[in-house]
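sorry for the late reply, my laptop died twice this morning and i had to redo everyting from scratch. anyway the thing you sent over, i finally got around to it. pasting the sequence first so we're on the same page, its 259 residues, then the predicted structure underneath. double check i copied it right bc i was rushing
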Amino acid sequence: MSYKGYSALAGVYDLFNAELDYESWANFIEAAFDRFLQRRPQILLDLACGTGRMTKILSGRGYDMIGVDGSAEMLAKAAENCGYDPRILYLLQDMRSFELYGTVGAVISCLDSVNYLIKEEDLGACFSLVHNYLDPDGLFLFDVNTPHKFETIYGDEAYLFDGELTEGEKRIPVFCAWQNHYVKKSRICTFDLSVFYGDERGNYRREDETQKERCYTREELESALQKAGFEVLGVFGGFDFSAPAKNAERIYFAARAKK
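ok and here's the structure:
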């Protein structure tokens, strides 16, 4: 099953996330390997890999990578970003029903991809598959947006982002209008997005899409991991393995596959 939620946003995803420090995030991933595994794994799954920026960095550090994503448009950008790389295999698959050719030493899932699993059964299906395709004692690392972020940062706020894409010598002005609607009872946040791509004549092409994320509590995620056969090793507020603050916007989970 392919995911249609990034058809409009794929072209500007990296531009609007340009401030993210992927190198520091990759350092955190490797530090987690050293902390929780006897040895660093050889094969990694980057689940919901998006445009492949983390996949490319970890491939460059010597890991054999499998990048799974449900959006054909995002995987097209990943292939463009990474070029030919014999260490990377990209697969267009849903994170609730993916299939691999064998097991892997670790699974990573970055940038609140788990929040896109808006039903509890979807969360359970994903975690069970991750457990199934991990080596015994393999490591699962992922992050989520916190209830604090859903309630105070997302809420019913509206945001505007603008920037410029380059294609060869062309410079393409773009901007994105983003309207949120968070329902506290269901804990579902709906994002209505409109992306405008300009051209050299000053005309704009508009693309619209809607995304949804589910707010999970730390306790719910720990319970789902345990039901899927994981041992929760830690929940962190930053790349220094510190405890999450009450106003943390993102928290990081580390879990071991018990087999």
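The mean pLDDT is 94.
thats about all i looked at so far, will dig more tmrw
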